[in-house]
Design goal:
Layout lengths: L1 E5 L2 H8 L5 E3 L5 E4 L3 E5 L4 H15 L5 E10 L7 E9 L5 E2 L10 E7 L11 E3 L2 H8 L8 E9 L10 H10 L1 H22 L5 H7 L4 H17 L8 H4 L4 H13 L8 H9 L1
Helix pairs in contact: 1-4, 2-3, 7-9
């Protein structure tokens, strides 16, 4: 799942068709949803962004998700229309920093991003917005930093002041970077799925715990054995009739360990190994 948080309806509008999003009624926020994406329009300001982020989290529940704050931002030196991922977000009022984690090379330039309470001219080699720190403050309560990012499109700079902006210009700026938004979003969605799979219970764990009353220590051992099984022989179920016919928890653990010890494991393809043996 990819969750998009935007401040303005003008920022949301260009994102609807590419993500096949439809409006969802019955909520205090404008929410649009698709098969793998949810979007919420928060309103302006960090408090509004935090509240909307928390609301969307409550709506999707425990569904594994990545979180992306998309919007416009002023910048002291970058050209209007430039897409930027924030590598550090600082709340200007409190000084509190947030550090999104990149698991691969960023798909566009990165920037320091200051979240301010009132619109102001951009200065220095940094970006300025009004939502990112509130978004991060809320999102970090239920997602890890790899899955929380802010993508900003430069809307104003010293040569093009923010006072000239209007809804049409904001929508056009977002629309000009739909490819970048799509690439960043897809990367985050895939990463979220991979992280969830990595930390998910291995196949068979729930069934075995329901069948025998393992101690907490034994559950930890069982989880490790089943995780090894899933890595070494994922095509073969660990739980079978022989395992279920055992009489005790200790027998189950010993049986799994013995079966794992018997698995042949090669660091090179077997056909390559055979060729080397013949040579």
């Amino acid at each position: 799942m990819l969750c998009l948080v935007v401040a303005l309806a003008a920022e949301a509008r260009p994102l609807l068709a590419p993500h096949r999003l439809q409006g969802v009624s019955g909520h205090p926020y404008r929410i649009c949803a698709g098969e793998q994406t949810h979007l919420i329009v928060s309103g302006i300001g960090k408090v509004a962004a935090a509240a909307a982020t928390a609301y969307l989290r409550a709506l999707i529940g425990d569904t594994p998700a990545a979180w992306l704050n998309i919007g416009i931002a002023g910048h002291g030196s970058q050209a209007v229309g430039t897409p930027l991922l924030a590598h550090k977000i600082v709340d200007a009022a409190s000084g509190k920093p947030f550090y999104p984690a990149f698991t691969a090379s960023p798909l566009c330039r990165t920037t320091l991003l200051h979240t301010v309470d009132l619109a102001q001219p951009a200065a220095s080699d940094a970006a300025y917005d009004m939502e990112a720190s509130g978004f991060c403050e809320a999102a970090q309560r239920f997602a890890t930093s790899e899955r929380i990012h802010c993508l900003k499109i430069v809307s104003d700079n010293p040569q093009s002041p923010y006072q000239t902006l209007n809804a049409a210009k904001v929508a056009a700026l977002i629309e000009s970077q739909l490819d970048t938004v799509s690439q960043v979003g897809e990367h985050l969605r895939t990463l979220s799925q991979q992280l969830h799979a990595l930390h998910a219970d291995p196949p068979g764990l729930a069934e075995l715990i329901a069948h025998w009353q393992f101690t907490a220590t034994q559950q930890h051992q069982l989880r490790g054995l089943l995780a090894r099984w899933q890595t070494l022989v994922p095509e073969t179920p660990a739980v079978n009739d022989d395992l279920l016919s055992l009489q005790s928890r200790d027998e189950v653990l010993a049986h799994l360990k013995q079966r794992l010890d018997e698995v042949e494991f090669f660091l090179i393809p077997e056909e390559t190994k055979d060729d080397q043996t013949e040579a």
